[in-house]
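SUBJECT: A protein chain and its fold
Encoding: whole-number codes for local backbone shapes
Chain under study, with its fold:
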Amino acid sequence: MAFARLPLWVKKPLTENSTTRDVRRLLGALELNTVCQSAGCPNRWECYSSLSVTFMILGTNCTRYCRFCGVSKGPPQEVDSGEPSRLSAAAGRMGLDFVVITSVTRDDLPDGGASHFARCIQELRKLQPKPGVEVLVPDFGGRSELCSLVLEASPDVFSHNVETVPRLYPAVRPGADYVTSLKILETAARHPSGSVVKSGFMLGLGETEEEVTSVLRDLNDAGCQAVTVGQYLRPSLDCLPVAEYVPPARFRSYEEAGKRLGLCALYAGPLVRSSYRAFEMWRRVNGDHYSKQELHSEPGCQGLH
């Protein structure tokens, strides 16, 4: 079976330049992974060009077999104890104002990798000026104490994606549970860290408009302040086929629905991904009053050095 022809609104040129090459060289030299590359994100060259990456920690092999995801599946790798310090070094050399960290799911680890997330945050907090930090975590098997372990390191944004509507979980996210994901978000919303709580999901897998609105309502009720909604694009023939390419007008209608529900920030669009314009979204939740100078003691993002 071949890939279906993409509509114009989901096509994006992949243009490499000196900055993207510098970013890839730095990541290679420091032996760091990004979900941008591993999952084949369509925005990766745009993000690399603006010195924005989403680091992927805890290896490149996921222990779950979600049928939407292009990340490699297979036996997990050893946890790299030096990864947090190298990640911090990369963020410092790139002059990042805002750092996004995600991971493969590590059901093999006793703490699901929560302590590794916490160490990454702690290492980033040593940088001067300190960058903002967003973590996009797996469900940790629904264990609230593991979410709290990450939250105690005080990320600026705590994100966990529900990925799709509950009816489609058996086909899209076998091994995961919608209610468990909502409980993770509720745990974060109640935690005294004050982290912004964020989630995201995909369209084009066979969901109905009523189901999408229901998920937005559930996320708002769970305490989410920020939500991303994007188009599912089939990473490989081993993944689920696209049921529908959702037109931009419908994405705009979901943004309006999110506003009516009271969500602080909702980005919806064909090429929106969970970390898309993450710094901008964090600022929006905080009333857009955090300038670069207010976030740091001095301007950052000075480029690779």
